[in-house]
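>> received
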Amino acid sequence: MKYGVIIRNVTDLRVAPKFRSERRSQLLFNEPIKIESSQNGYYSIRQLDNYCGWVDEKAVRIVSSRGFKTLRKTGNCLVASPIAQITSIDYDKTYPPFLFYGTRLELAKKTGNYGIVVAAGKYHFEMALKDLLYPLSGGKNLELSSVIIRQAKRFLGVPYLWGGITPFGFDCSGLVKMIYQFAGISLPRDSRDQVKAGRRIESDEVRAGDLRFFKGHVAIAIDRYKIIHSSLGAGGVAINSLNPVDCDFRSDLLKIFMENRRVI
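>> returned
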């Protein structure tokens, strides 16, 4: 078994080891991975939650088993801005010039309005503290629901992208995973697995922060009827309603509604 860490700000996770293969998901900078095999310039990898696929070998730096264990344990902050610039400290240009929302990092030291970040087992660089969420901590359920809705609304208008998990493009479950991760809640990558999280609730119990599931789709509840989701039919991240009297009513979604889940 080999181990690695992602050194691009984002890289595609593909179904097969070839460029034109379907995108399953994406991985962010500094994510530790297990490497199971290699083929055609791609690694067959497994994420910490056991989600697997193929990534470009050039997006990965090999680390030791000890380095992998260290990377698994570190990560005391997240990138909180949609896109956050980084400043070179060690003048190593092999890391990207900016990072995406939700990237997990290790904040080593604060210097005024900036912090020194350690990442990928070797890189040291400077980032503005305003771009980081630190320290990572939980909160009360109602507080978390407000955080979730507020964060999701930041990405209104972001295009739909199959397998996407960044502000350059989200799919439905990718948006859900990244928003709840920001709130300190770990969810599976795909909606078919997210539907197993938390507990089932009735529609008249739905409140902000609950998840609403449809056939092949997931959305975040804003209230009993309003939802925010990344929808191909809406062109990306949008707010819609399941109430027929509302102007943004989605009758197509209501027809394929499955269930509601409370995960906070």
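>> The chain is about 15% helix and 40% strand.
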